[in-house]
């Protein structure tokens, strides 16, 4: 899937609720995703966004979460433009660790 945000979407702000991104696949099909959360990594000098498909029930245990890096603007926001795939195994492991911590914290609430 090509990770391109649609031009008409709002900025993504860390901690903002109900943010959505439209991803466009290689065939030009648009798919709507919700922002789960964003975070920064000092180790990699990047910002990350984790997304899940719109329309997923809260009770659904098999939710595929997509993760991308992005370059924030001077305000720390991501706006319409490209998201970048995570290609390094160590970087993936770090993202998975952050996600697992987030999910564990959510389960405790």
TrEMBL record:
Pfam families: DUF1292. InterPro entries: UPF0473. Belongs to the UPF0473 family. This is UPF0473 protein FC50_GL001827. It comes from Lacticaseibacillus pantheris DSM 15945 = JCM 12539 = NBRC 106106.
């Amino acid at each position: 899937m090509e990770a391109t945000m649609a031009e008409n979407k709002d900025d993504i702000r860390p901690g903002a609720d109900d943010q959505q991104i439209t991803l466009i696949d290689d065939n030009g099909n648009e798919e709507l995703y919700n922002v789960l959360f964003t975070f920064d990594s000092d180790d990699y000098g990047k910002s990350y966004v984790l997304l899940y498909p719109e329309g997923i029930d809260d009770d659904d245990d098999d939710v595929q979460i997509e993760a991308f890096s992005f370059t924030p603007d001077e305000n720390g926001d991501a706006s319409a433009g490209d998201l970048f795939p995570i290609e390094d195994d160590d970087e993936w492991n770090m993202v998975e660790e952050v996600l697992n911590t987030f999910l564990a914290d959510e389960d405790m609430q």
